[in-house]
């Protein structure tokens, strides 16, 4: 608020020509400060602070020392990550030599993107169909969101669902691991693990990556 103060000019009270009165201006900044604090409070209360981007990964509890040896990954698929954004995969148990009448393991390469997505959907076809059917029921209001999430989790953890394993050598980059896990989530794959790569797998990976 501006206040104007009038001071007595020369010739005041005397006869003579009337001169313009000198005026002094003083600006009151109190309303401006109040407005600034109101705007600051408004933006603080309505702003959304950046949240850290994280990915939840559930790791299994280490088995007891005397626990029986786990079964081989027969109904599963293993993905091997290496340099230059390359990813190789194989199905079933790893065999560096022919075993039980079955040939030795041979790696196949798949590229990130549409090829990888198509491969995962094909291997997880049974669970994918179940989850898509549940989504249709949720959209048609046959089931609510809570029921959908519960049934989807149960479907992904079904014993018949394939199990996927991710392994990487010392030349792979962390981003490829995250991209592969993202593809798993997109394709409704709920059973997967990240484990250490074996020496025999590294040797075969080096031969296939040439």
Write up this protein.
This protein is of the alpha/beta class. The protein has a domain at 76-208. The protein is built from 6 helices and 7 strands, in the order ββαβββαααβαβα. It has helices spanning 30-46, 114-123, 125-139, 145-156, 174-186, 199-208, and strands at residues 2-6, 23-27, 76-81, 87-91, 108-110, 163-168, 192-194. Strands 5-4-3-6-7 form a 5-stranded mixed β-sheet, with helices on both faces. β6, α5 and β7 form a beta-alpha-beta unit. It is elongated and about 125 Å long.
Share of helix, binned:
25-40%
| Anisotropy-based shape | elongated
Query: Can you give the mean pLDDT?
Result: 82
Put simply, the count of helices is 6
Strand content: 15-25%
Largest sheet: 5 strands, mixed
User: Which sequence of SSEs, written as H and E, runs from N to C?
Assistant: EEHEEEHHHEHEH
The count of β-strands is 7
What Rg, in angstroms, do the CA atoms define? 35 Å
How far from one another are the termini?
A: 79 Å
* Arrangement of strands in the largest sheet: 5-4-3-6-7
Low-pLDDT residue spans: 1-9
Structural class: alpha/beta
């Amino acid at each position: 608020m501006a206040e104007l103060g009038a001071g007595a000019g020369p010739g005041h009270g005397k006869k003579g020509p009337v001169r313009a009165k000198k005026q002094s201006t003083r600006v009151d900044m109190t309303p401006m400060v109040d407005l600034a604090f109101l705007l600051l409070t408004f933006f603080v209360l309505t702003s959304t602070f950046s949240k850290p981007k994280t990915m939840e990964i559930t790791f299994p509890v280490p088995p007891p020392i005397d626990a029986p040896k786990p079964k081989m990954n027969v109904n599963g698929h293993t993905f091997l990550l290496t340099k230059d954004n390359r990813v190789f995969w194989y199905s079933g148990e790893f065999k560096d030599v022919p075993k039980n009448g079955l040939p030795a393991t041979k790696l196949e390469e798949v590229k990130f993107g549409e090829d990888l997505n198509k491969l995962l959907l094909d291997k997880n076809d049974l669970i994918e169909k179940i989850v898509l059917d549940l989504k249709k029921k949720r959209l048609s209001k046959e089931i609510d969101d809570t029921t959908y999430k519960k049934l989807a989790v149960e479907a992904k953890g079904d014993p018949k669902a394939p199990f996927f394993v991710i392994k990487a050598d010392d030349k792979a980059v962390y981003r490829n691991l995250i991209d592969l896990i993202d593809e798993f989530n997109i394709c409704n794959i709920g059973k997967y693990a990240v484990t250490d790569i074996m020496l025999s797998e590294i040797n075969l990976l080096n031969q296939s990556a040439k």
